[in-house]
Amino acid sequence: MPQRHTRVRFVTLLATSALAVGGSVSLAAAPAAHAASTSVLISAVYGGGGNSGAPYQNDYIELYNTSSSTVDLSNWTLTYYSAAGNSGGTTTLTGKSIAAGGHFLIQEAAGSGTAAALPTPDATGTINMSASNGSVVLRNDAATVDTIGFGAVTSSYVEGTAAPAMSNTTADSRTTGCTDTDSNGTDFVNADPNPLNSTAALGVCGTTGNTPPPPTGTPSSIEEIQGTGFQSPLVGEQVKDVTGIVTAKNGSAGFWIESATPDNDPRTSEGLYVYGGAGSVQVGDAVTVAGKVSEYRPGGVDNGNMTTTELGSPNIQVTSTGNALPAPIVIGSKGHVPPAQVVEAGDPGNVETAGLTLDPTTSALDFWESLEGMRIQENNAKAVGPTETSYGETPIVPANTKHVTWTPDGGVLYKNYDTPNAMRLILSDALLPANSIAPANTGDTYQGATVGVLDYNFGNYYLMATQAGALQRGSTTRDVAKPAKKKQAAVATFNVENLAPTDPQTKFDRLAGQIVTNLAAPDVVALEEIQDNNGATDDGTVDSTQTTDKLIAAIKAAGGPSYQAVWINPVNDQDGGQPGGNIRSVFIYRSDRGMTFVNKPGGTSTNSVAVTGKGKWASINYSPGRIDPTNTAWDDSRKPLVGEFLWWGKPLFIVANHFDSKGGDDPLMGRYQPPQRSSEVQRHAQATLVRGFVDQLLKANKHANIVVLGDLNDFNFSETANIVKGHGKTAMTDLIDTLPANERYTYDYEGNSQVLDQILLSGALTKKFDYQVVHTNSQFYDQDSDHDPQLVKLAVH
């Protein structure tokens, strides 16, 4: 029963594997050998309670006493194990007994649906059983009394052969007479759920099972179910006689089938996901399936994700086994090249309701939709972003991909809104045993064939691998900047991704190493995402002294200089980010090379910095200060931090930013086309306020030395960046634009190398500078932050 229809992150076991993705599982010891039970038996089990189509709300286990005497169950327990042998909970029967020839009903956990209540149970527990595969062990003290293993059990918790797999609508019940031969496959049959408690007739036990009625519905093929559009033309209909070969299993949750007799229409997929019944099939089985057609949208009904077509509540007949699998479609081969830079032509809005007919030759969204659920293959797949190790997911493209802009390290550049690089797939290891696919850095290659089924999840199409190529490392290495010259002021920006004192010391040490070695110990570093003293604990703490002290100590221990930190504590829970974390921007600076911080007390979380004086005396009233912090543009977002510094006595104004995130925008590969970027409205307002402050400084002193930097959470070609840049004689220079086009990236999101972080300079500082994005994180699976830092070395006049 735990395997509800989630697919939020894919179910992580192959039916043939006893290893869980993410690490090996320690299997419990095998049950002790025992003779056939002569007293109390497990007479029935049911794990589909509360699932779709279930007749009862709860799972249950039923016992039967074959002896002629009452049995005291005070020291007896029932333990459930998953198919792989992991314990799923125990129910104790303390104080209970079972009469001679009597039944005993144990009610277990309820599902999320609504169905009939069980008869009054004789005992209750909280076990969530699988609807299809698993084991139940009955013990008296430590001694095993009886065991049933059902479905695709890979553990030793089974007697002889396994009992049949169950479903939402079927239980496993002992055959008539409740004999025990110590072979579950002999002793149990599928039957309609018929829970019996202690009030049931004595001495009557077992069933001949049930013969499922012939399936009903309209005879259909996979191609007819998939149709030529984004959703099935048969949604909500009952279909039958759907034939295919089982190509992959999603643990016990479901499986994919593919037609052995494909049609000639490139718009109709030959693959289909069947939700449920995975315990009754194996890869290579030829099956005939009946069920109800539906569309599944990951994340709920109200988001921008696409749906996948599936067949639910299936009636499955295996017609043969050991069949060869359909040959995979080789992505990148002739006739199977995804359009790289076109998601969906025109302005269709919701593609699922726009009445569109798929055109795989011109639209990437159509191309992938036409292959949904099918076996595909990429040869020498190239990693265009690092592996997200917590999920085992890596963005990839075929090695022969064309019509994209490659970065020097082998990533794909996201250079404007018209180039979404839609040939990307997310390679997932969720159907493979743990550690089957080595984690990759950007530019690495999986040599040979990577094969799997095509699925969709959270805004991306996924290659759910059943076979992966061997990893070959590319040439990507972490950048190391040269130290600043004596008269160069070195200024950097670095988003350190929710840094808190509760993080392991290794994160502080590695970040310190980046600052000291890779950034060459800048004079000023604007840090974004510094959390408060207890991190995400939401108890009203807002000060971050412990966080910055710990980082500064780590920098010193790494051989760096002595830094000092300045910031303004936010109002509790008002600046967005991780709840309770109170992230803020912080300046750390060193004063041993000519940099001085001009401390002007009075700046608080709610009052605003202002420009004072004119000409060479132009200054600010608070240092550090915040820009218009009570303006609604900063609601649930970080407020810019302004600091006045002196470089060998010359004023230098630095504005550290962390604009509102892009959360809530439509995914590039979503149902709304073109994607709507709703989050940029707030960033435009924030950019306008920052630009307004810059204009005030330049009005007071047109030669003011101003650096605006940080995580603007928007692209260098965006309107957000253009607002901050400004126009005419007072325009600022966005330094990312001074790099060669294919080097303009600070971040990698799902295989798109892109800009989120910027450094902008006022005109007085643009005469001579040395600028670099220091790629230390975004391209590496073992990153310390998801952002790359940037460094500029300035001549301050």
Automatic annotation (TrEMBL):
Key words of the record: Signal
User: What domain of life?
Assistant: Bacteria
What the entry lists under SUPFAM superfamilies is as follows: DNase I-like, Lamin A/C globular tail domain
User: Which PROSITE patterns does this chain map to?
Assistant: LTD, TAT
InterPro entries recorded for this chain? Answer: Endo/exonu/phosph_ase_sf, Endo/exonuclease/phosphatase, Lamin_tail_dom, Lamin_tail_dom_sf, TAT_signal
Is Ribosomal protein there in the keyword field? no
For region Disordered, the annotated ranges are 165-225
Q: Where is the signal peptide?
A: 1-35
According to the entry, every stretch annotated as the LTD domain falls at 30-152
Q: Which GO terms describe its molecular function?
A: catalytic activity
> Which Pfam family, any one of them, does this sequence belong to?
Exo_endo_phos_3
PANTHER family assigned to the protein according to its UniProt record, in alphabetical order: ENDONUCLEASE/EXONUCLEASE/PHOSPHATASE FAMILY PROTEIN (AFU_ORTHOLOGUE AFUA_3G09210) (PTHR42834), ENDONUCLEASE_EXONUCLEASE_PHOSPHATASE FAMILY PROTEIN (AFU_ORTHOLOGUE AFUA_3G09210) (PTHR42834:SF1)
Protein name (Swiss-Prot/TrEMBL): LTD domain-containing protein
Q: Which species does this protein come from?
A: Flexivirga oryzae
